Automatic annotation (TrEMBL):
Species of origin: Streptomyces antnestii
InterPro entries: BilAc:Na_symport/Acr3, Bilac:Na_transpt, Na+/solute_symporter_sf
Subcellular localization, as worded in the UniProt entry: Membrane
Membrane topology field: Multi-pass membrane protein
GO (cellular component) term, any one: membrane
This protein's record includes keyword Ribonucleoprotein: no
Transmembrane segments: 21-39, 51-67, 79-103, 109-129, 136-157, 202-226, 232-255, 294-316
Keywords, sorted A to Z: Membrane, Transmembrane, Transmembrane helix
Protein name in UniProt: Bile acid:sodium symporter family protein
Chaperone as UniProt keyword: no
Length: 324
């Protein structure tokens, strides 16, 4: 869980190296955490109530990496940022609903897949865009605005699309997103503004703090649905691979269709296809069940693996084009 996929983007050379390394190690770390949660469920089940606080830590780290420049980028390119937001909040929720129905998923898993699709962009998308030689400025702008808008967009979309599978308390979900996402992000931004020179010294550690925190969240989620994982794991993995893969492809296609150029189209691919699955896991655990959070936990691992592979391929193609 962008990230979620939630690994803070680079803002200095030191932060850049740490973030790239964290993106590489992150899937392995999360996979190991899931294995521990599956093997020792009793050790983590009682941590369920701490998941929102753990997510708050990750989002606070995201806020610490932000600067006012991120918001200025939105004003400079409103058309491209607006397109990225519309593509993200139309394609991924729509794909979640289609996949849930096409695979005839049980209600808990269907709601979980849809909730992943309704989440904002994962911040790891910024680093993966960099590795793909994409438009990092556009990636940062879309990820930032999609996170800020999440309290207004994610709950009604979830109610609209997942309400046929499970009851959805959209009002309570708005409150939870404000508490676990928006407030920590704003707090982190304010701390960065007030104590910027001190924060710069610890930027290299933030990716690891986020990665470790997300790993704990995944362990808790897996522990909570350990008894159902053996029968549902294959189906959930199929849903996640389809969701992420189609999101990456359609996001890239949206950028090409809008004639944004190759670097911006690469950024669009990751801003659409990579989700804040940490938020999805937290909301699913709080509002549905640990089983509903399983798609988010699997997404946390898979979208970092697929993102790294697609970024490597895009970077190779970009270098070949430059040399031609």
């Amino acid at each position: 869980m962008q990230t979620e996929e939630l690994i803070p983007r680079p803002t200095t050379d030191t932060g850049d190296r740490a973030a790239r390394l964290a993106v590489t190690v992150f899937p392995v770390l999360v996979l190991a955490a899931g294995g521990i949660g599956l093997a020792l469920p009793d050790a983590f089940v009682s941590w369920k109530t701490n998941v929102p606080y753990l997510l708050g830590v990750v989002m606070f780290c995201m806020g610490l990496t932000m600067t006012p420049h991120d918001f200025k980028g939105v004003a400079k390119r409103p058309w491209a940022v607006g397109l990225g937001l519309v593509a993200h909040y139309v394609i991924m929720p729509g794909l979640g609903w289609l996949i849930a129905n096409a695979l005839d998923l049980p209600p808990q898993l269907a709601a979980g897949v849809i909730l992943v699709g309704c989440a904002p962009s994962g911040t790891a998308s910024n680093v993966v865009t960099y590795l793909a030689r994409g438009d990092v400025a556009l990636s940062v702008s879309v990820a930032t605005v999609s996170t800020v808008l999440a309290p207004l967009v994610t709950p009604p979309l979830t109610l609209l699309l997942a309400g046929e599978f499970l009851p959805v308390d959209a009002g309570s979900m708005v409150t939870d997103i404000l508490k676990t996402v928006l407030l920590p992000v704003v707090a982190g931004l304010l701390v960065r503004l007030a104590l910027g020179r001190y924060v710069d010294r610890v930027l290299g550690a933030l990716p690891w703090l986020s990665a470790l925190t997300i790993a704990v969240i995944v362990a808790v989620v897996v522990a909570g649905s350990a008894t159902a994982i053996k029968s549902a794991a294959g189906l959930v993995l199929l849903a996640v691979v389809l969701h992420n893969g189609l999101g990456l492809a359609l996001g890239y296609g949206a950028g090409k269709l809008a004639r944004l150029g190759a670097p911006s189209s690469r950024a669009m691919a990751f801003e659409v296809g990579m989700q804040n699955s940490g938020l999805a896991a937290s909301l699913a655990t709080a509002h549905f069940s640990p089983l509903a959070a399983l798609p988010a936990a699997v997404f946390s691992v898979w979208h970092n693996v697929s993102g790294a592979l697609v970024a490597a391929w895009m970077s190779y193609r970009a270098r070949r084009a430059e040399q031609a």
